[in-house]
Amino acid sequence: MTAERGFRFVFNERLGIRLPETDRDWWMYPLHEQAEMIEEWERIKARIPDRIKELEDEINAKHQAISEEDDWDRVCELYEEYFAIASVINDLNIWAKIEPGLTDKPPVEGEEDGYGLADEHTNREKE
Questions:
Q1: Does the pTM exceed 0.85?
Q2: Distances, alpha carbon 97 to alpha carbons 29, 73, 81, 82, 121, in Å
Q3: Where is the composition biased (Basic and acidic residues) (predicted)?
Q4: Which helix or strand (DSSP H or E) is residue 45 part of?
């Protein structure tokens, strides 16, 4: 994917996957570019379950450490780490459900577009 086209996929450190970065609304991209983005997104999305499994293994290790820890301050730190990982898993599950479709029509005002690469999630990751 090239930046000249106005879209690219950028690695997100927190989630451990590449996410779409666009410079305009989904429907404004030519259909052939949408198809390219969808193809790349499907490749990325196919790896999300493996990433979630890695994080679940980390959660299990944190849970074990919590159950064995006597120092209350350390238990609190472990819980913070545990919940941060759980938040990443939650976000990955949301991204895994993104199913963009091809369209050259703008969304109807007041309705969610439902066919793009989730601008609201992309914007959330920038915060």
A1: no
A2: 21, 37, 25, 23, 12
A3: 118-127
A4: helix 31-46
Residues 6+ apart with CB under 8 A from 78: 62, 65, 66, 69
Map out the domains of the chain as residue ranges. 3-126
In order of 7, 107, 111, the CA distances from 52 in angstroms are 26, 32, 31
For 19, other C-beta atoms within 10 Å of its C-beta total 21
Q: Name the CA dihedral angle for 22, 28, 29, 35, rounded to a multiple of 10 degrees.
A: 100
Each residue's pLDDT tens digit, 54-109? 999 999 999 999 999 999 999 999 999 999 999 999 999 999 999 888 888 887 77
Minimal CA–CA distance to 114: which of 124, 99, 104? 99
Distance CA 81, CA 77 (A): 6
Give the pLDDT confidence of 1-52 residue by residue, as tens digits.
Answer: 444 567 899 999 999 999 999 898 888 999 999 999 999 999 999 999 999 9
| Cα gap 67→33, rounded to integer Å | 50
